[in-house]
Amino acid sequence: MRFTRRLLDRYFFGAGVILAASGAAASCASTDEEVNSGSSDAGPEASVAADGGAPSESGSVDANVRDVTAPPFDGGPLPVVCATDRCATSLVTTLAVSSDDRSEGYCALLHDGTVACWGGNGAGQLGRGDDAGTSDSPTAERVDGLSEVAELSHTCALDKSGSVWCWGTGPYLRNDTGERTTERTPLKLALPPVEHVGMGRDVGCASNGDDLVCWGSNANGQLAPTTTTPAWTFLGPVPVDLPSGAPSREILVGETAFVLREDGQTLSWGAMPSLGRLSSLSPDSYALPMDLVGLSSIDSAGDNACATVGGVGYCWGRLLRDAFLSFWLVVDDWTLPSPVVAPEPLVQIATTRSFVTGGFYDAVVRPQRWCAVGASGSVYCWGFNASGQAGDGTKEHAYQAVKVEGLPTTAAQVKAMPDSTCALLTNGKVYCWGSNYYGQLGNGKLRVPSIVPEEVVLP
């Protein structure tokens, strides 16, 4: 795809500030062999800011974000009711071995308490054992040795006894230093029983009651202030001080760590700009409440985050984009949550990381993209779409939210990666679309992309 006059106009006047990609980005976005276009028509356009709701060029933020009062809408995702034995109840993305590794994959928590994964396997993300090697797989298969799983965080599973099992590459506490290791079968972490776990590429956290411990790399100050503990330090589990409040409901770890509490309060600490609150510290090692209150869901990917509050989606973090006709990259940082105007109330929103491929003179930015589930169970996507990952049957970048076409029923959850998307439907089935270079569509085919949703064959 080359720049068109309309695309350039949108680029320079801000309508597509993070979506305008170079011709190389579009043409090299996928090396999949053929495309399944289905018969889907493009979904209706919706009124959503092209930059995911970023503030104006002046950097100002709507004052209402500072003291958010939840709108009357208080609904949540539609429940999953299993229609068959092959049924998923939760969906997560896998983590690649490094921030510049483009491999993608997904894992699903099945109704029988086991876990199935598919897609990239270079870092052992599929959990199929040493004999399986590092081959990517387009077929969903159960992770070895897991049962009675209650919660997933990327490639870590919390079972009903409170034990945490992890596979792939991460800080899995095989040693006392908190350094990363690669585990091709699930490893039980050396932790006492916990209630929740959050795992990132370099840091893990777990909570039990009011207590929270984190471990791994201190590069983003998530373990201790970098003034006292250098950023290059790796640590085993250390306590993190939390202000008093409601019990924890969910933990997410990217370059910023988040604890979502039962009452909707969210604590954040770590790197800017995904902190989601004002701070004079960078990084900020102190877990403090965000001004955005009443959160019903939150998602984090690298240095980006999104959340829903009372049916409204909010996003914040770092946006990378090409500076047209320049070798330099433009970095837009939005530290405070900015609202996304959607066609209907949102109950869940998913974000992705941006990254740069190539060298200094041929660098190509892969801009972000987002997807969300509406209160009706419809799925909407917007942003980068060179692989058809928006799900509207086209490869045109989505400057406004487009409704995903071709899903057989309503959705309970959506997960997004840079080149693909998967949705968990209310009947327990999983559908995916976009690039399939790593088998991340889970349809039994490798490197055969689809611009319309295709069913994952669950075990």
TrEMBL record:
InterPro entries: Ran_GTPase-activating, RCC1/BLIP-II, Reg_chr_condens. Residues 33-70 are annotated as: Disordered. Keywords: Signal. GO terms for cellular component: cytoplasm. GO terms for molecular function: guanyl-nucleotide exchange factor activity. Pfam families: RCC1_2. Residues 1-26 form the signal peptide. PROSITE patterns: PROKAR_LIPOPROTEIN, RCC1_3. It comes from the Bacteria. The keyword Ubl conjugation does not apply. PANTHER family: REGULATOR OF CHROMOSOME CONDENSATION. This is BNR repeat domain protein. It comes from Labilithrix luteola.
